[in-house]
Protein backbone atom coordinates (compact mmCIF):
# COMPACT_ATOMS: atom_id res chain seq x y z
CA UNK A 1 0.00 0.00 0.00
CA UNK A 2 1.35 3.44 -0.91
CA UNK A 3 1.47 6.00 1.87
CA UNK A 4 -0.54 9.12 1.08
CA UNK A 5 1.36 12.31 1.85
CA UNK A 6 -0.49 14.94 3.85
CA UNK A 7 -0.90 18.22 2.01
CA UNK A 8 -1.70 21.77 3.04
CA UNK A 9 -3.59 24.38 1.04
CA UNK A 10 -1.14 27.28 0.72
CA UNK A 11 -3.09 29.96 -1.15
CA UNK A 12 -5.07 30.76 -4.26
CA UNK A 13 -2.97 30.55 -7.40
CA UNK A 14 -3.88 34.16 -8.17
CA UNK A 15 -2.26 35.19 -4.87
CA UNK A 16 1.14 34.12 -6.22
CA UNK A 17 1.18 36.70 -9.02
CA UNK A 18 2.12 39.69 -6.86
CA UNK A 19 5.64 38.59 -5.89
CA UNK A 20 8.24 36.01 -6.83
CA UNK A 21 8.80 34.57 -3.35
CA UNK A 22 6.57 34.11 -0.37
CA UNK A 23 6.90 33.25 3.29
CA UNK A 24 4.63 30.41 4.26
CA UNK A 25 4.17 29.76 7.98
CA UNK A 26 2.48 26.49 8.90
CA UNK A 27 1.17 25.49 12.31
CA UNK A 28 -0.11 22.20 13.62
CA UNK A 29 -3.79 22.19 14.44
CA UNK A 30 -3.13 20.08 17.52
CA UNK A 31 -1.65 21.48 20.74
CA UNK A 32 1.04 22.22 21.64
CA UNK A 33 1.46 24.17 18.41
CA UNK A 34 4.44 23.44 16.27
CA UNK A 35 5.48 25.90 13.58
CA UNK A 36 7.22 25.25 10.33
CA UNK A 37 8.34 27.91 7.88
CA UNK A 38 8.61 27.37 4.16
CA UNK A 39 9.33 29.50 1.14
CA UNK A 40 7.31 29.37 -2.03
CA UNK A 41 9.15 30.49 -5.16
CA UNK A 42 7.32 31.40 -8.32
CA UNK A 43 9.05 31.02 -11.65
CA UNK A 44 7.20 33.29 -13.97
CA UNK A 45 5.96 31.98 -17.25
CA UNK A 46 2.34 32.93 -17.03
CA UNK A 47 2.77 36.30 -18.69
CA UNK A 48 4.19 34.70 -21.80
CA UNK A 49 0.86 33.08 -22.55
CA UNK A 50 -1.90 35.08 -24.17
CA UNK A 51 -4.29 32.36 -23.06
CA UNK A 52 -3.68 32.93 -19.39
CA UNK A 53 -6.65 34.23 -17.48
CA UNK A 54 -4.29 35.84 -15.02
CA UNK A 55 -2.40 37.93 -17.52
CA UNK A 56 -3.96 41.11 -16.26
CA UNK A 57 -2.22 44.48 -16.55
CA UNK A 58 -2.17 44.79 -12.77
CA UNK A 59 -0.58 41.39 -12.30
CA UNK A 60 1.94 42.08 -15.03
CA UNK A 61 2.84 45.45 -13.60
CA UNK A 62 3.20 43.94 -10.13
CA UNK A 63 5.51 41.23 -11.37
CA UNK A 64 7.71 43.57 -13.36
CA UNK A 65 7.98 45.79 -10.28
CA UNK A 66 8.75 42.96 -7.89
CA UNK A 67 10.96 40.74 -10.03
CA UNK A 68 14.31 40.68 -8.23
CA UNK A 69 16.26 40.04 -11.40
CA UNK A 70 15.40 40.61 -15.04
CA UNK A 71 15.69 36.94 -15.85
CA UNK A 72 12.54 36.04 -13.96
CA UNK A 73 10.26 37.64 -16.48
CA UNK A 74 11.92 35.87 -19.39
CA UNK A 75 11.80 32.25 -18.30
CA UNK A 76 9.79 30.27 -20.78
CA UNK A 77 7.76 27.19 -20.22
CA UNK A 78 5.69 26.84 -23.36
CA UNK A 79 4.07 23.60 -22.26
CA UNK A 80 2.13 25.21 -19.44
CA UNK A 81 -0.11 28.19 -18.85
CA UNK A 82 0.61 28.13 -15.12
CA UNK A 83 3.60 29.51 -13.24
CA UNK A 84 6.07 26.99 -11.93
CA UNK A 85 6.17 26.92 -8.19
CA UNK A 86 8.82 25.54 -5.90
CA UNK A 87 8.55 25.09 -2.18
CA UNK A 88 11.40 24.65 0.23
CA UNK A 89 12.55 25.16 3.79
CA UNK A 90 12.78 28.80 4.80
CA UNK A 91 16.26 28.44 6.21
CA UNK A 92 19.33 26.71 4.87
CA UNK A 93 19.81 23.49 6.87
CA UNK A 94 23.58 23.89 6.95
CA UNK A 95 24.06 27.35 8.41
CA UNK A 96 20.55 28.60 9.07
CA UNK A 97 20.68 31.27 6.38
CA UNK A 98 17.31 32.84 5.58
CA UNK A 99 16.52 31.73 2.04
CA UNK A 100 14.15 34.61 1.43
CA UNK A 101 17.42 36.41 0.74
CA UNK A 102 18.64 33.68 -1.59
CA UNK A 103 20.09 34.59 -4.93
CA UNK A 104 17.99 33.41 -7.83
CA UNK A 105 19.99 31.81 -10.63
CA UNK A 106 18.89 30.37 -13.91
CA UNK A 107 20.07 26.91 -14.76
CA UNK A 108 19.05 23.68 -16.40
CA UNK A 109 17.79 21.33 -13.76
CA UNK A 110 16.16 17.98 -13.49
CA UNK A 111 12.43 18.44 -13.11
CA UNK A 112 11.39 17.15 -9.73
CA UNK A 113 9.32 19.96 -8.33
CA UNK A 114 7.84 21.85 -11.23
CA UNK A 115 4.17 22.40 -11.73
CA UNK A 116 2.75 22.05 -15.21
CA UNK A 117 3.06 19.66 -18.05
CA UNK A 118 6.71 19.54 -18.97
CA UNK A 119 7.79 17.60 -21.99
CA UNK A 120 11.48 17.44 -21.27
CA UNK A 121 13.25 15.81 -18.41
CA UNK A 122 15.29 18.99 -18.05
CA UNK A 123 14.10 22.53 -18.35
CA UNK A 124 15.34 26.02 -17.58
CA UNK A 125 14.38 27.32 -14.18
CA UNK A 126 15.30 29.77 -11.45
CA UNK A 127 17.14 28.19 -8.57
CA UNK A 128 17.39 29.49 -5.05
CA UNK A 129 21.01 29.52 -3.98
CA UNK A 130 21.94 29.90 -0.33
CA UNK A 131 23.14 33.46 0.31
CA UNK A 132 25.76 32.25 2.75
CA UNK A 133 27.51 29.42 1.03
CA UNK A 134 26.17 29.22 -2.50
CA UNK A 135 24.43 25.88 -2.08
CA UNK A 136 22.07 25.13 -4.93
CA UNK A 137 18.92 23.68 -3.38
CA UNK A 138 16.94 22.60 -6.38
CA UNK A 139 19.58 20.14 -7.47
CA UNK A 140 21.44 19.56 -4.24
CA UNK A 141 19.12 18.75 -1.40
CA UNK A 142 15.79 17.20 -2.21
CA UNK A 143 14.95 16.68 1.45
CA UNK A 144 14.60 20.46 1.79
CA UNK A 145 12.10 20.79 -1.01
CA UNK A 146 8.40 20.07 -1.09
CA UNK A 147 6.01 19.00 -3.81
CA UNK A 148 3.72 21.74 -5.04
CA UNK A 149 0.51 21.09 -6.87
CA UNK A 150 -1.99 23.45 -8.46
CA UNK A 151 -5.52 22.12 -8.17
CA UNK A 152 -8.46 23.57 -10.06
CA UNK A 153 -8.69 26.08 -12.87
CA UNK A 154 -9.20 29.78 -13.40
CA UNK A 155 -10.25 31.75 -10.34
CA UNK A 156 -10.69 28.52 -8.38
CA UNK A 157 -7.11 27.31 -8.86
CA UNK A 158 -5.40 26.66 -5.53
CA UNK A 159 -1.82 25.93 -4.55
CA UNK A 160 -1.19 22.95 -2.28
CA UNK A 161 2.13 21.89 -0.78
CA UNK A 162 3.23 18.73 0.97
CA UNK A 163 3.07 18.84 4.75
CA UNK A 164 6.45 19.27 6.47
CA UNK A 165 8.69 16.23 6.41
CA UNK A 166 8.70 14.16 9.60
CA UNK A 167 5.46 15.85 10.56
CA UNK A 168 4.51 13.12 13.02
CA UNK A 169 1.08 12.75 11.43
CA UNK A 170 -0.04 16.25 12.42
CA UNK A 171 -2.67 18.21 10.59
CA UNK A 172 -1.26 21.57 9.46
CA UNK A 173 -2.76 24.93 8.60
CA UNK A 174 -1.31 28.03 6.97
CA UNK A 175 -1.14 30.94 9.39
CA UNK A 176 0.87 33.33 7.26
CA UNK A 177 1.27 33.77 3.52
CA UNK A 178 3.29 36.85 2.72
CA UNK A 179 5.11 38.07 -0.33
CA UNK A 180 8.77 38.95 0.17
CA UNK A 181 8.98 42.49 -1.14
CA UNK A 182 12.24 43.62 -2.63
CA UNK A 183 12.35 46.26 0.10
CA UNK A 184 12.16 43.35 2.52
CA UNK A 185 14.94 41.48 0.73
CA UNK A 186 17.07 44.61 0.58
CA UNK A 187 16.07 47.02 3.35
CA UNK A 188 16.39 50.72 2.43
CA UNK A 189 19.16 51.38 4.91
CA UNK A 190 22.39 53.01 3.74
CA UNK A 191 25.49 50.81 3.91
CA UNK A 192 28.50 51.47 6.07
CA UNK A 193 30.64 51.89 2.96
CA UNK A 194 28.39 54.80 1.89
CA UNK A 195 29.63 56.77 4.88
CA UNK A 196 33.22 57.17 3.56
CA UNK A 197 34.59 56.78 7.05
CA UNK A 198 38.17 57.07 5.85
CA UNK A 199 37.50 60.70 4.95
CA UNK A 200 37.21 61.77 8.59
CA UNK A 201 34.31 62.34 10.99
CA UNK A 202 30.84 62.14 9.48
CA UNK A 203 28.20 64.70 10.43
CA UNK A 204 25.12 63.30 12.11
CA UNK A 205 21.89 63.61 10.17
CA UNK A 206 20.20 64.78 13.36
CA UNK A 207 20.57 68.59 13.59
CA UNK A 208 22.67 69.80 16.51
CA UNK A 209 24.06 66.35 17.35
CA UNK A 210 27.75 65.36 17.44
CA UNK A 211 29.59 63.81 14.53
CA UNK A 212 29.60 60.06 14.10
CA UNK A 213 32.34 58.11 15.76
CA UNK A 214 33.02 54.47 15.09
CA UNK A 215 35.52 52.14 16.72
CA UNK A 216 38.66 51.65 14.64
CA UNK A 217 37.70 48.01 14.13
CA UNK A 218 34.20 46.66 13.78
CA UNK A 219 33.14 43.61 15.83
CA UNK A 220 33.76 40.14 14.48
CA UNK A 221 30.82 38.49 16.24
CA UNK A 222 27.07 38.94 16.44
CA UNK A 223 27.36 39.65 20.16
CA UNK A 224 29.92 42.36 19.43
CA UNK A 225 27.53 44.02 17.00
CA UNK A 226 24.72 43.75 19.57
CA UNK A 227 26.73 45.72 22.13
CA UNK A 228 27.97 48.24 19.55
CA UNK A 229 24.46 48.97 18.23
CA UNK A 230 23.07 49.32 21.74
CA UNK A 231 25.75 51.89 22.60
CA UNK A 232 25.15 53.92 19.42
CA UNK A 233 23.07 57.07 19.92
CA UNK A 234 22.76 58.26 16.33
CA UNK A 235 19.60 56.60 14.98
CA UNK A 236 20.77 56.37 11.36
CA UNK A 237 24.11 54.92 12.40
CA UNK A 238 22.25 52.45 14.63
CA UNK A 239 20.39 51.22 11.53
CA UNK A 240 23.53 51.13 9.39
CA UNK A 241 25.41 49.07 11.99
CA UNK A 242 22.43 46.74 12.39
CA UNK A 243 22.37 46.15 8.65
CA UNK A 244 26.15 45.67 8.59
CA UNK A 245 26.10 43.13 11.42
CA UNK A 246 23.23 41.11 9.96
CA UNK A 247 24.72 41.17 6.46
CA UNK A 248 28.11 40.02 7.77
CA UNK A 249 26.30 37.26 9.66
CA UNK A 250 24.52 36.13 6.49
CA UNK A 251 27.69 36.31 4.44
CA UNK A 252 29.46 34.01 6.92
CA UNK A 253 31.87 36.81 7.82
CA UNK A 254 31.34 36.71 11.59
CA UNK A 255 33.47 34.45 13.74
CA UNK A 256 30.50 33.59 15.92
CA UNK A 257 26.72 33.88 15.81
CA UNK A 258 26.01 32.04 19.05
CA UNK A 259 28.66 33.45 21.39
CA UNK A 260 30.92 31.24 23.46
CA UNK A 261 30.78 31.58 27.23
CA UNK A 262 34.28 33.06 27.10
CA UNK A 263 33.20 35.75 24.66
CA UNK A 264 30.16 36.63 26.76
CA UNK A 265 32.33 36.97 29.86
CA UNK A 266 34.92 39.08 28.02
CA UNK A 267 32.41 41.51 26.57
CA UNK A 268 30.50 41.81 29.86
CA UNK A 269 33.74 42.71 31.64
CA UNK A 270 34.86 45.25 29.04
CA UNK A 271 31.71 46.80 27.54
CA UNK A 272 28.98 45.62 29.94
CA UNK A 273 25.22 45.72 29.56
CA UNK A 274 23.58 49.12 29.31
CA UNK A 275 20.95 50.32 31.76
CA UNK A 276 19.67 52.63 29.06
CA UNK A 277 20.71 53.10 25.42
CA UNK A 278 21.77 56.68 24.56
CA UNK A 279 19.39 58.83 22.51
CA UNK A 280 19.62 61.83 20.16
CA UNK A 281 16.15 62.93 21.26
CA UNK A 282 14.78 64.45 24.44
CA UNK A 283 13.18 61.80 26.66
CA UNK A 284 10.12 62.86 28.66
CA UNK A 285 7.61 60.85 30.73
CA UNK A 286 4.82 59.37 28.64
CA UNK A 287 2.19 61.67 30.18
CA UNK A 288 4.27 64.75 29.22
CA UNK A 289 4.52 63.80 25.55
CA UNK A 290 1.41 65.63 24.48
CA UNK A 291 -1.39 64.46 22.23
CA UNK A 292 -0.65 63.01 18.82
CA UNK A 293 -3.91 64.17 17.28
CA UNK A 294 -6.02 62.34 14.74
CA UNK A 295 -3.76 62.71 11.75
CA UNK A 296 -5.96 65.27 10.01
CA UNK A 297 -3.11 67.76 9.66
CA UNK A 298 0.45 67.18 8.52
CA UNK A 299 1.67 68.42 11.90
CA UNK A 300 -0.36 65.72 13.60
CA UNK A 301 0.84 63.03 11.17
CA UNK A 302 4.46 64.05 11.78
CA UNK A 303 3.83 63.55 15.51
CA UNK A 304 2.27 60.13 14.84
CA UNK A 305 5.13 58.97 12.60
CA UNK A 306 7.70 60.36 15.04
CA UNK A 307 6.07 58.42 17.88
CA UNK A 308 6.18 55.25 15.76
CA UNK A 309 9.82 55.89 14.84
CA UNK A 310 10.63 56.17 18.55
CA UNK A 311 9.04 52.77 19.15
CA UNK A 312 11.01 51.32 16.23
CA UNK A 313 14.28 52.73 17.53
CA UNK A 314 13.67 51.06 20.88
CA UNK A 315 12.61 47.91 19.04
CA UNK A 316 16.04 47.79 17.34
CA UNK A 317 17.69 48.02 20.75
CA UNK A 318 15.35 45.43 22.26
CA UNK A 319 16.12 42.89 19.53
CA UNK A 320 19.85 43.34 20.14
CA UNK A 321 19.31 43.40 23.91
CA UNK A 322 17.54 40.03 23.91
CA UNK A 323 20.64 38.70 22.13
CA UNK A 324 23.16 40.39 24.43
CA UNK A 325 21.40 40.16 27.81
CA UNK A 326 20.30 36.54 27.52
CA UNK A 327 23.27 35.22 25.55
CA UNK A 328 24.25 32.81 28.33
CA UNK A 329 20.71 31.62 29.10
CA UNK A 330 20.54 27.86 29.54
CA UNK A 331 18.13 25.22 30.78
CA UNK A 332 19.75 22.31 32.60
CA UNK A 333 23.00 22.86 30.76
CA UNK A 334 21.38 23.32 27.34
CA UNK A 335 22.14 26.68 25.80
CA UNK A 336 19.97 28.64 23.40
CA UNK A 337 20.47 27.26 19.89
CA UNK A 338 21.92 29.30 17.03
CA UNK A 339 18.42 29.74 15.59
CA UNK A 340 17.55 31.94 18.58
CA UNK A 341 20.31 34.38 17.63
CA UNK A 342 19.41 34.23 13.93
CA UNK A 343 15.75 34.96 14.68
CA UNK A 344 16.43 38.03 16.78
CA UNK A 345 19.07 39.36 14.40
CA UNK A 346 16.40 39.18 11.71
CA UNK A 347 13.99 41.09 13.99
CA UNK A 348 16.70 43.74 14.59
CA UNK A 349 17.13 44.14 10.84
CA UNK A 350 13.35 44.51 10.37
CA UNK A 351 13.17 47.15 13.08
CA UNK A 352 16.06 49.08 11.52
CA UNK A 353 14.20 48.92 8.22
CA UNK A 354 11.05 50.24 9.94
CA UNK A 355 12.90 53.12 11.57
CA UNK A 356 14.59 54.01 8.27
CA UNK A 357 11.31 53.98 6.36
CA UNK A 358 9.65 56.22 8.95
CA UNK A 359 12.56 58.63 9.18
CA UNK A 360 12.72 58.85 5.38
CA UNK A 361 9.02 59.69 5.38
CA UNK A 362 9.50 62.28 8.15
CA UNK A 363 12.18 63.94 6.03
CA UNK A 364 9.90 63.93 3.01
CA UNK A 365 7.41 65.81 5.20
CA UNK A 366 10.05 68.39 6.16
CA UNK A 367 10.80 66.96 9.60
CA UNK A 368 13.29 64.43 11.04
CA UNK A 369 13.59 62.04 13.93
CA UNK A 370 14.65 64.01 17.00
CA UNK A 371 12.39 66.96 16.22
CA UNK A 372 9.89 65.87 18.90
CA UNK A 373 10.24 64.64 22.44
CA UNK A 374 10.09 60.88 22.99
CA UNK A 375 9.25 58.53 25.85
CA UNK A 376 11.12 55.46 27.03
CA UNK A 377 8.17 53.31 28.13
CA UNK A 378 9.22 50.30 26.10
CA UNK A 379 12.72 50.29 27.51
CA UNK A 380 11.32 50.67 31.04
CA UNK A 381 9.22 47.53 30.53
CA UNK A 382 12.27 45.76 29.16
CA UNK A 383 14.32 46.61 32.23
CA UNK A 384 11.58 45.30 34.50
CA UNK A 385 11.97 41.98 32.73
CA UNK A 386 15.75 42.01 32.52
CA UNK A 387 16.15 39.02 34.85
CA UNK A 388 13.90 36.57 33.05
CA UNK A 389 13.86 35.62 29.40
CA UNK A 390 10.32 34.26 29.70
CA UNK A 391 9.10 37.53 31.23
CA UNK A 392 10.96 39.56 28.62
CA UNK A 393 9.43 37.67 25.70
CA UNK A 394 5.95 37.72 27.25
CA UNK A 395 5.86 41.45 28.00
CA UNK A 396 7.80 42.89 25.10
CA UNK A 397 7.19 40.51 22.23
CA UNK A 398 3.83 38.93 23.08
CA UNK A 399 2.13 41.93 24.70
CA UNK A 400 3.79 45.11 23.38
CA UNK A 401 4.44 43.86 19.84
CA UNK A 402 0.98 42.31 19.62
CA UNK A 403 -0.38 45.67 20.77
CA UNK A 404 1.33 47.19 17.73
CA UNK A 405 -0.43 44.62 15.54
CA UNK A 406 -3.73 45.73 17.12
CA UNK A 407 -3.09 49.45 16.69
CA UNK A 408 -1.58 49.58 13.20
CA UNK A 409 -4.91 49.18 11.35
CA UNK A 410 -6.34 52.11 13.33
CA UNK A 411 -3.34 54.30 12.48
CA UNK A 412 -3.54 53.13 8.87
CA UNK A 413 -7.18 54.18 8.72
CA UNK A 414 -6.27 57.66 10.00
CA UNK A 415 -3.52 58.02 7.40
CA UNK A 416 -5.83 56.85 4.62
CA UNK A 417 -8.57 59.22 5.76
CA UNK A 418 -6.04 62.04 5.43
CA UNK A 419 -5.13 60.67 1.96
CA UNK A 420 -1.51 60.25 3.08
CA UNK A 421 -0.90 57.12 1.00
CA UNK A 422 2.91 57.38 1.24
CA UNK A 423 2.82 57.11 5.04
CA UNK A 424 0.17 54.38 4.82
CA UNK A 425 2.43 52.33 2.50
CA UNK A 426 5.24 52.53 5.08
CA UNK A 427 2.93 51.38 7.84
CA UNK A 428 1.71 48.44 5.76
CA UNK A 429 5.28 47.15 5.34
CA UNK A 430 5.84 47.54 9.07
CA UNK A 431 2.59 45.80 10.00
CA UNK A 432 3.36 42.68 7.94
CA UNK A 433 6.74 42.33 9.67
CA UNK A 434 5.37 42.93 13.15
CA UNK A 435 3.07 39.91 12.88
CA UNK A 436 6.16 37.76 12.32
CA UNK A 437 7.87 39.27 15.38
CA UNK A 438 5.01 38.07 17.57
CA UNK A 439 5.48 34.65 15.98
CA UNK A 440 9.18 34.79 16.84
CA UNK A 441 8.34 35.66 20.43
CA UNK A 442 5.86 32.82 20.62
CA UNK A 443 8.37 30.39 19.15
CA UNK A 444 10.96 31.03 21.86
CA UNK A 445 8.43 31.39 24.67
CA UNK A 446 7.04 27.96 23.69
CA UNK A 447 10.55 26.51 23.34
CA UNK A 448 11.51 27.52 26.89
CA UNK A 449 8.19 26.35 28.35
CA UNK A 450 8.55 22.96 26.62
CA UNK A 451 12.10 22.56 27.96
CA UNK A 452 10.99 23.49 31.49
CA UNK A 453 7.78 21.47 31.41
CA UNK A 454 5.62 24.59 31.82
CA UNK A 455 2.15 25.14 30.42
CA UNK A 456 2.75 28.07 28.03
CA UNK A 457 -0.75 29.49 28.37
CA UNK A 458 -0.69 29.49 32.18
CA UNK A 459 2.88 30.76 32.18
CA UNK A 460 1.95 33.62 29.88
CA UNK A 461 -0.93 34.60 32.14
CA UNK A 462 1.36 34.53 35.16
CA UNK A 463 3.95 36.69 33.42
CA UNK A 464 1.36 39.26 32.41
CA UNK A 465 -0.13 39.33 35.93
CA UNK A 466 3.29 39.86 37.49
CA UNK A 467 4.93 42.23 35.05
CA UNK A 468 2.32 44.07 33.00
CA UNK A 469 0.98 47.12 34.77
CA UNK A 470 -1.26 48.72 32.18
CA UNK A 471 -4.82 47.96 31.28
CA UNK A 472 -5.28 45.82 28.21
CA UNK A 473 -7.80 47.64 26.11
CA UNK A 474 -9.31 46.53 22.84
CA UNK A 475 -9.93 46.54 20.02
CA UNK A 476 -7.83 43.45 19.37
CA UNK A 477 -6.76 42.60 15.84
CA UNK A 478 -7.97 39.03 16.20
CA UNK A 479 -7.31 38.08 12.60
CA UNK A 480 -3.66 39.20 12.52
CA UNK A 481 -2.99 37.97 16.05
CA UNK A 482 -4.19 34.56 14.93
CA UNK A 483 -1.71 34.71 12.04
CA UNK A 484 1.05 35.22 14.58
CA UNK A 485 0.15 32.72 17.27
CA UNK A 486 -2.69 30.45 18.22
CA UNK A 487 -3.18 29.85 21.93
CA UNK A 488 -1.56 32.98 23.32
CA UNK A 489 -3.20 35.28 20.75
CA UNK A 490 -6.58 34.80 22.38
CA UNK A 491 -5.38 35.52 25.85
CA UNK A 492 -5.36 39.26 25.85
CA UNK A 493 -9.07 39.37 25.14
CA UNK A 494 -9.82 36.59 27.57
CA UNK A 495 -7.86 38.26 30.28
CA UNK A 496 -9.75 41.49 29.79
CA UNK A 497 -13.00 39.56 30.06
CA UNK A 498 -11.79 38.00 33.30
CA UNK A 499 -11.00 41.43 34.69
CA UNK A 500 -14.45 42.67 33.81
CA UNK A 501 -16.03 39.66 35.50
CA UNK A 502 -13.96 40.07 38.64
CA UNK A 503 -14.91 43.73 39.01
FE1 LIG B 1 8.99 47.40 13.96
FE1 LIG C 1 8.75 44.33 15.92
UniProtKB/TrEMBL annotation:
Keyword Transferase tagged: no
InterPro entries xref list: DUF455 (IPR007402), Ferritin-like_SF (IPR009078), Rieske_2Fe-2S (IPR017941), Rieske_2Fe-2S_sf (IPR036922)
Ranges of compositional bias, category Basic and acidic residues: 50-67
Domain Rieske, residue spans: 80-137
Gene3D superfamilies recorded: Rieske [2Fe-2S] iron-sulphur domain
Annotated Pfam families: DUF455 (PF04305)
Annotated protein name in UniProt: Rieske domain-containing protein
Lineage: Eukaryota, Fungi, Dikarya, Basidiomycota, Agaricomycotina
Amino acid sequence: MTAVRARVRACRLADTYSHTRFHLALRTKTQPSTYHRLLLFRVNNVYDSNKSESDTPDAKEATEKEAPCPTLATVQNPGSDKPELYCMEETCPHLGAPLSHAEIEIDDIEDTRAVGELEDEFHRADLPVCPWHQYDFATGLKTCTYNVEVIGKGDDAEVWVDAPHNDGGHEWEVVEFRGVSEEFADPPIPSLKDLNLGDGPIPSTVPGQPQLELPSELPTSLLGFAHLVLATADPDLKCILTKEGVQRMRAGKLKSIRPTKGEIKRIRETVGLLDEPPRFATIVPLNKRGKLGRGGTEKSRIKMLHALANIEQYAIDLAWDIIARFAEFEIEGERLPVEYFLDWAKVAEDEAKHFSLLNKRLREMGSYFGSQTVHAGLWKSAMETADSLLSRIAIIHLVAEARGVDMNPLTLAKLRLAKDEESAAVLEVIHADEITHVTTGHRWFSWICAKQGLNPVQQFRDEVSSHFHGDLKGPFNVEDRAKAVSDIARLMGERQDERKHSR
